[in-house]
Amino acid sequence: SFALPPIKSKPGQLEQFPFNEGTFGVPEVMTNGLSSVRTNLEVSHPVELSELNYKKNQNKMNMAVLRNTQGLHAPLRIAMELKSAKKIGRLPFLSSSNVMLESLTGHDIEMDPSDIFNVPEFNEVAGFPHAVVERSLGLL
Q: Which of 37-41, 108-112, 129-133 is predicted least confidently?
């Protein structure tokens, strides 16, 4: 169908209910702690589910509009480019900057706290490059 995805979010429910029952069918309070049944069964706010999936919903909407205006080839080409950009890597001891992936998704022009605070790519990793490569090849 060529219809756009719905903008209004649907209330989310869990597929499985996370009850940790013991051997006698009673929740094990001593090992799992006290928990409220209400927090396990429903989302705390109707907008929370929509906000958690904002990027995914926005991407689906953009791809549907693109498919309706330019045809099926445009979303397929973008999906192919994203898939090939995710496969690009460096040697095992160098972390990838993902510049191509960020430029395709538009994340390169955004600034958020994860760009500055405590990102794993800025952590200093001490290791001998030859040993890391040999380990990744299965020689060590």
A: 37-41
Closest by CA to 132, choosing from 101, 93, 104, is 93
pTM above 0.70, yes or no: no
In 3D space, the residue among 74, 12, 76 whose CA is nearest the CA of residue 45 turns out to be 12
Same-domain check for residues 37 and 106: no
**Contact in structure between 135 and 93 (CB atoms under 8 Å):** no
Query: At which residue do the structure tokens 């995710």 appear?
Result: 86
Question: According to the model, what pLDDT value does residue 74 have?
Answer: 94
Same domain? 93 vs 83: no
CB 81 within 8 A of CB 106: no
| Number of DSSP helices (H) and strands (E) in the chain, helices first | 7, 0
